[in-house]
Amino acid sequence: MAAATVVPVAYQQGSPAAPEWLNKGDNAWQMISATLVGMQGMPGLVILYAGLVKKKWALNSAFMALYAFAAVMPCWVLWAYKMSFGHQLLPFWGKAGLAVSQDFLIPQTILPSTDYKNVSAAQPLYPTSTMVFFQFAFAAVTVILLAGSVLGRMSIKAWMVFVPLWITFSYSVGAFSIWGGGFLFQWGIMDYSGGYVVHLASGAAGFTAAYWVGPRLKEDRENFAPNNLLLALAGAGILWMGWTGFNGGDPFTANVDSSLAVLNTHICAATSLLAWTCWDVLFFKKPSVIGAIQGMITGLVCITPAAGLVQGWAALVMGLASGSIPWYTMMCLSKKLPLLQKVDDTLGVLHTHAVAGTLGGALTGLFAHPYLSGLFLVVPNSKGAFYGTRGGIQFLKQLAGAGFVIGWNVLVTSIILCVIKLLIPLRMTDEELKVGDDAAHGEQAYALAGQGQKENSTMISGNHDSVELQYPYV
């Protein structure tokens, strides 16, 4: 006689650990997607930044990304998640609240209520804790992307204060307005996975922050050769593959639209990389590794607001556009416009994220397919201009939505930095800037001298020359 199969209580259908509404496949995919997005920030952007900057800034740049990734989490669960996806306080702002209680995290995720009748089609079949983790990863990546504009001179102490303030007063507003049921969502703005909420916001805020913080030293701005391009390529690879979760997780289920979004993401990224490389060869006679990374990023950013809303041919067209227009603004226009010459945007975040994000949002207004939009969006009659006269209105709405995101981020980022400036200098001193990592952290990224001991460096006067951190494993 066969032994009876004993099913643990925790896994019986309808039990508290596996309620009837839970779809384990969707939950698993969403948690994997959240992890992929998180890995884009840590370690993806951490090592991308560490490799792209000058040697003396490798550690500081990596730490700015690492700190931001950690600092967002307590803000997110204590107040910012509900500001982004909770009840409305203002048409563009949600009410702050805790997202750490068991009673909130274990029940099924309920998306913010809207006026649209088919909202139930988008209700996720997994607990709120999965959604909180997934959306945390987006918030963390956004502020890390912003950091790319101010690498190589921003005071680490000012950065430590800036991160929680920006997440609270800037990111949460964009997230609520477009994703959380706010006025831009009600108006019908399309942003499938963050072309506006993440990339346009980080690009606009990063450029604004670069203006207020001020430029790097002249010698750094004129000669800022990457210290380790192979390391940068590794970070870029993590960023690219992590985008599978970035766009593939935003239908909130493992469905047909999710698969299409993943494929479109990689079509656009590859096409954009190739287009950017071709322009480099045509104008500069050599393919650039840094250029290829930039083209990859602009392709990923451009497809993000459209990933599950457009057909494959449109992803190809968007890849050609994202490998060409941001290339022109970065390589040509930035050398002509006085404002772009004045503001020291270290890694060109304005071009790779703000320009590419705006481009992607606008092209979504052209190419969004009515049937594909119906698989995901709860906004009725969503379609691009290519699919009817009313679609032309959608294109104009997309541009207006971009205008709000840009305006809010410029305004709020400026206010935050001006307030911080009253208490903490935004920029390191020129003496500190000459030293780099050792002045900011008392540490160096690479020990190249002798048997691994720290290189001799010209230290500055003050507290830095007498402080050296000691760890038991060093």
Please characterize this protein's 3D structure.
There is one protein chain. With 474 residues, the protein is mostly helical. It has a single domain (33-421), classed as Orthogonal Bundle (Ammonium transporter fold), CATH 1.10.3430.10. 61% of the residues lie in helices and 1% in strands. Strand 1 and strand 2 (93-94) form a beta hairpin. The termini are far apart. Belongs to the ammonia transporter channel (TC 1.A.11.2) family. This is Ammonium transporter.
| Overall shape | globular
- The CATH topology assignment is Ammonium transporter fold
Following the backbone from N to C, one meets helices and strands in this order, namely HHEEHHHHHHHHHHHHHHHHH
CATH architecture: Orthogonal Bundle
Spans of at least 5 consecutive residues whose pLDDT stays below 50 are 1-13, 115-121, 459-474
Please state the CA-atom Rg, rounded to the nearest Å. Answer: 23 Å
What is the level 1 CATH name?
Mainly Alpha
Oligomer: single chain
Structure described in brief:
With 474 residues, the protein is mostly helical. 61% of the residues lie in helices and 1% in strands. The protein has a single domain (33-421), classed as Ammonium transporter fold.
Give structural attributes.
single chain; 474 residues; mainly alpha; two-stranded antiparallel sheet; 19 helices; transmembrane; RhesusRHD; ammonium channel activity; Ammonium_transpt_CS
Secondary-structure map:
Blueprint: H1 24-52, H2 58-85, E1 88-90, E2 93-94, H3 102-105, H4 128-147, H5 156-178, H6 183-187, H7 195-213, H8 218-222, H9 229-248, H10 256-284, H11 289-303, H12 312-322, H13 325-331, H14 338-342, H15 349-367, H16 370-376, H17 391-421, H18 430-435, H19 437-441
Antiparallel strand pairs: 1-2
GO molecular function: ammonium channel activity
Pfam families: Ammonium_transp
Family: Belongs to the ammonia transporter channel (TC 1.A.11.2) family.
